[in-house]
Fold each of these.
Amino acid sequence: MTILGPRQSGKTTLARMTFPDMAYFSLEDPDVRAAAEADPRGFLGQIKNAGILDEIQRLPALLSYIQGIVDKDGRHGRFILTGSHQPRLHEAISQSLAGRTAVLTLWPFSLRELRHYKVVRSPFDLIVSGCFPRLHEEGLEPRRFYNGYLQTYVERDVRALVQLRDLSQFQKFLTLLAGRVGLVINLASLSNDVGVSTTTIRNWLSVLKASYVVFELPPFFENVRKRVIKSPKIFFTDVGLASFLLGIHTDEQAFRDPLRGNLYENLVVADIVKGALNRTSPKKFMNGTGKAGR
């Protein structure tokens, strides 16, 4: 099984809580990664029964060895893999583990899951705080959480996927994108505002989508041709990050902000997608059919 999703969405926690008896290895740990890279067969050989390999995208070459082990013993559920970089991991899975692993996608908490904390929150409070598990579990201050989250994402994930010459331009792009949440994206307009080519904007947007920072909502038309050619709207996977980028740090600010309707729409649409993901697959919904579930 492979669990994908944005950073801090709870992939590791879910895997370790669901399979508490499995051996756990984090490939974020330099020592563990070095050992796995130096002797992949020996590293995997120490996992006698079953194991969790966290952040597998840090060493995608390991998947080829996992393929050999799975094909040899034919056991299901021997390895639980987690990863944050969708493009890198998907490419490796398609080459090595196609038909050998189930892929699950885990986003931050849904509104239904947040009810377990038994704290009544207004919609605008949720727009500011967002739905990342750690933020609610540990009672973190949203402003500090998202500041660290953004720095980690920009410094590690984005630079691992694209060559950023000017970090400030990408940060400007993120802020301008947050200002267009819930709208159809005009690449030419964004290009002029950021000061880079439309090709660069398109590439950056692809990286954000591939890394689960934003997602697109296709339009719904009875006419299939229109459904395919019409432009989608852009939303953030977690509305709290969009609010942080816009400088909104309190529920009062969110209530008075001109973009409050767009942010509220983001909160609702993202929760519908989470519901579809948690049930089975959002494929129909995200293809614009307006239907989610089985």
Amino acid sequence: MQADHAANPSQSLPPAARRFDAIALGGSAGGLEVLTVLLAALPPDFAPALLVVTHLPAETPSYLLETLQYRCALPVIEPDAGERIAAGRVHVAPPGYHMMVADDCTIALSVDSSVRYSRPSIDVLFESAAYVYGARLLGILLSGANEDGAQGLATIRAMGGVAWVQDPATALSGTMPRAAIARGAADDILSPTLMAQRLAALPSL
């Protein structure tokens, strides 16, 4: 199943022909498992920068960074505010902070109010990245139990980027991907396996 491409003709190129400066990924309940599958599929010379938001409580210890570092051949970090976004690196939002892309392609962190009960918010990351990267951004929304990320993914498409959504039938919680699909925010609706294959096959910059 695929979303209608007619609303955004700039996205009509096949995935293999698109080149991205950055890939923004977001997920909640069930999303971490899929995220590890996607990152594990990436080759060590993968070129785009990756920006990751998952919903994790700030008040409890998180082993997300260690988990992703173990599974991924790329460097995985929790960036500091003002840190430059680097190609071929996975930038993971720290628990309790919104992570945004600043105009100069550095990381901005905020403790502003939660968005859709979440901080970090997927919408906040997606929307800020969309305005900076435009058509050179790929947004990926994974399994989750609320609607965070759906509006941000729509913004990515509106700014000329490409939007992938996990097939709700494969998600532990299909609320998040279904919300994006209902908004018409998905260019492609993919299983985790196919999503991993497509990511690994993206061309270098």
